[in-house]
Each structure stands twice: as structure tokens, then as C-alpha cells.
């Protein structure tokens, strides 16, 4: 019974705070990294935009995904982005450039993105600045609740 | 052929060609707009997103069923499932893709009910009152199903409106094309008739045709 209660308490409290991103590098090694540390290591310019899922304009800050992929040797490979709800999409090499500096947002208006608010990381594209990007492919790539980045075999 | 006839024919030819080019431009513009907005993709987004939400409610239900039966409690997974369902609820209640639906009473009632039941569900889970949690998830599942039904209806309406609009555009282009052809053919006919008349006159008066 005590184990049950502990499991419940840990289960309900910890995941809300969980802000880890799982990255499998080009060598096949898995890295579990806190997203706020990644944001410090690979800072991205803030993006102020609305998008099809959150219609109000917000300022998103977070991780420079190009630098991140480069760091883990995934810049020139096909990469699968996997979300907490099992949604996944494959990012083709060079496709990031077509999204014109997207970021992996970890904060919205200065506050950490929670899972309920499409966090802990969300691939954000500047739809306001580049309305031509509002196409099916970009929408598919705008993964929210991103949990894992892995090279696609 | 006098100058007036010649200028009318010339004008008809020029207008016909201009009209044909303009129609072509309209069609090209429409094509690129279709590419840009991806209407078909946007149309199918409502229903797909709702279906995904139902899947996530089902996932949460599975965890609750286990907890209620006293077999197992995977708290991490259950909390994750709850958060995901919450995020789906926010998508339905705030997402821009649902903006047209949000103004409808039926839809906003269903979404509001989901929000209320979610809060109740979370409270029940915190209190480990699995029976109450089970009832709440049942209510959520029913309301989410209603959201899916309304999304499907809205999607069908959008598709029908798009098909009607496309048909109107097709007919408009057809009319413009026909008009362009008529003007060009008419212009050519006037030129041809004028030329023939000139030959006949020249023949009768025994003049050399210049």
C-alpha cells in the first residue's frame, strides 16, 4: 500500500516537472538531457508568433535545434522526432533550413512549457513572419510534447 | 475594308487574347494558392485531431481500468495520459483550427463539459477514488465522441463548400475562355470578311488588288 502511495505521489508530481529530452546520437548512444540545460547550451533567438494550435501571439524561447542536431552528429541524417503521445515524424536532412530557423521551444512568455501546454519542448516555426510555411508538411513537423530525437534507420 | 472594321477586328483580337491570358493567370493563381494553403490537408485536420483525442482518452481509460481493478497503478503513465488529454482539450477549446467550431453552441458545450470532467477526474485520481475517476472518464469519452462527430460534420461542410466554390470557379473560367475564343474568332472573321469583300470589289471594278 505504501509503495502504491509513493508510486502515485512520485508519479503525479515528478512528470509535471519532467523536462528531459531523450536524444540518441549518431553513434546510437542515448542522452537524457534537461531541456533548460540544452536551452543554455544551444540558445535560440526568441520567436514571437501565433500558430494553428495556439492562436494568440506568444514569445517562444528555447533551443537552437540546428546546433543541437549538429552537436549530436544528426545534422546530415534523417531524424525521427517522437512525441509523448507517440506521434512521430521524420525530419529529412536539410529540411530544417526550409523552416527558416525554427526553435525547440521550452518556454512560452518566459514560463516553462508544461505537458498540458504542449511542452516540455515544441518545435516552433515563425508562421507570422513566414505565412508561406503554413502548409501540411510544416504542420506535421511542428511536433509538440517532443520527447525523443533519434536517427532514422 | 475600312479603318473602323479593321480597328474593331484588331480590338476583338487583342481583347480575346488578353482575356485568355487573364483566365490563364487566374487559374495559375488559384493553383499556387491551393499549394500554399493546402486546403485538403486543412480540411481533414479537424477530424483527424478529434480522432487522436479519442485515442488519448482511451489510453487514459486503460490505465484507470487497471487501477480500478486493483491490478496495477502505473502512476507515471497515468499522469502522462492525463496531461496529454488535458493538452488535447486545450487544443479543442483554444486551437485556431477549431475556431469556426468554437462559435457553435453544441461544440462549446461539449468542450466545456470535457474541461469540467477533466478537473473532476484529476481530483478523483488525486484522492484515489477510482470509481469516481472511472465515471468522469466515461463522461469525457462521450463528450469527446461528440466533439469528433461535430468535427466530422464541420469537415464535411468545409469540403462541400470547397467543392461548390471550385465548381463555380471552373464554370467562370469556362465562360471566360469561351468569351476569349469568341472574340478572337470574331475578330478573325471580321478581318477575313473584310479582306474577301475587298477582293470582290476590286474584281468588279477591275482594279488591281493592292
Structural overview:
The complex is a heterodimer of chains A (153) and B (210). Helices cover 26% and strands 30% of the residues of chain A. With 153 residues, chain A is α+β, with helices and mostly antiparallel strands. Chain A has a 5-stranded mixed β-sheet. The longest helix of chain A is centred in the N-terminal third of the chain and has 16 residues. Chain B has a domain of 118 residues: Four Helix Bundle (Hemerythrin (Met), subunit A). Chain B is built from 6 helices and no strands. In chain B, α2 packs antiparallel against α3 and α3 packs antiparallel against α5. The relative contact order of chain B is 0.15. The model of chain B has no long low-confidence stretch (mean pLDDT 86). Chains A and B meet through α1 of A and α1, α2 and α3 of B.
What share of residues are in beta strands of chain B? under 5%
Mean of all residue-level pLDDT scores of chain A: 88
Helicity level of chain A: 25-40%
The main sheet of chain B comes to: none
What's the total count of β strands of chain B? Answer: 0
SSE sequence of chain A, one letter per element: HEEHEEHEEHEEEHE
* Distance, first to last CA of chain A: 44 Å
**For this structure, what is the CATH class of chain A?**
Alpha Beta
Average pLDDT taken over every residue of chain B: 86
The percent range for strand residues of chain A is: 25-35%
Describe the global form of chain B. rod-shaped
Runs of chain A with pLDDT <50, length 5+?
1-17
Helix content of chain B: over 70%
State the low-pLDDT regions of chain B, or none: none
The beta-strand count of chain A equals 10
Give a short summary of the structure:
Chain A is an alpha+beta fold and 153 residues long. Chain A has helices at 2-17, 35-41, 65-71, 95-98, 136-141; strands at 20-24, 30-34, 47-49, 58-64, 79-83, 88-91, 103-108, 111-112, 122-124, 146-151. Chain A has five helices and ten strands, in the order H-E-E-H-E-E-H-E-E-H-E-E-E-H-E.
Amino acid at each position: 500500500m505504501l509503495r502504491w502511495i509513493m508510486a502515485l505521489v512520485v508519479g503525479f508530481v515528478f512528470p509535471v516537472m519532467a523536462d528531459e529530452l531523450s536524444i540518441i546520437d549518431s553513434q546510437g548512444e542515448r542522452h537524457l538531457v534537461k531541456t533548460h540545460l540544452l536551452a543554455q547550451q544551444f540558445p535560440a533567438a526568441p520567436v514571437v508568433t501565433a500558430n494553428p494550435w495556439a492562436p494568440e501571439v506568444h514569445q517562444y524561447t528555447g533551443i537552437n535545434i540546428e546546433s543541437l542536431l549538429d552537436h549530436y552528429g544528426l545534422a546530415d541524417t534523417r531524424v525521427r522526432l517522437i512525441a509523448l503521445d507517440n506521434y512521430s515524424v521524420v525530419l529529412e536532412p536539410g529540411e530544417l533550413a526550409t523552416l527558416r530557423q525554427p526553435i525547440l521551444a521550452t518556454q512560452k512568455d518566459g514560463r516553462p512549457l508544461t505537458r498540458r501546454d504542449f511542452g516540455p519542448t515544441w518545435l516552433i516555426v515563425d508562421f507570422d513572419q513566414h505565412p508561406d510555411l503554413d502548409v501540411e508538411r510544416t504542420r506535421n513537423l511542428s511536433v509538440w510534447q517532443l520527447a525523443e530525437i533519434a536517427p532514422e534507420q | 475594308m475600312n479603318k473602323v472594321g479593321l480597328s474593331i477586328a484588331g480590338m476583338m483580337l487583342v481583347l480575346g487574347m488578353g482575356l485568355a491570358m487573364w483566365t490563364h493567370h487566374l487559374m495559375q493563381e488559384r493553383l499556387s494558392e491551393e499549394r500554399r494553403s493546402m486546403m485538403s490537408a486543412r480540411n481533414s485536420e479537424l477530424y483527424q485531431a478529434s480522432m487522436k483525442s479519442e485515442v488519448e482518452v482511451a489510453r487514459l481509460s486503460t490505465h484507470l481500468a487497471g487501477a480500478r481493478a486493483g491490478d496495477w497503478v502505473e502512476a507515471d503513465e497515468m499522469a502522462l495520459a492525463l496531461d496529454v488529454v488535458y493538452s488535447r482539450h486545450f487544443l479543442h477549446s483554444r486551437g485556431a483550427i477549431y475556431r469556426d467550431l468554437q462559435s457553435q453552441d453544441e461544440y462549446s458545450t461539449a468542450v466545456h463539459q470535457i474541461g469540467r470532467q477533466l478537473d473532476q477526474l484529476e481530483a478523483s485520481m488525486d484522492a484515489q477514488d477510482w470509481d469516481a475517476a472511472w465515471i468522469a472518464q466515461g463522461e469525457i469519452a462521450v463528450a469527446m465522441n461528440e466533439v469528433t462527430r461535430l468535427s466530422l460534420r464541420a469537415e464535411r461542410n468545409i469540403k462541400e463548400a470547397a467543392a461548390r466554390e471550385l465548381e463555380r470557379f471552373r464554370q467562370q473560367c469556362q465562360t471566360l475562355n469561351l468569351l476569349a475564343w469568341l472574340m478572337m474568332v470574331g475578330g478573325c472573321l471580321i478581318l477575313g470578311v473584310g479582306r474577301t469583300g475587298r477582293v470582290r470589289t476590286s474584281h468588279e471594278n477591275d482594279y488591281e488588288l493592292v
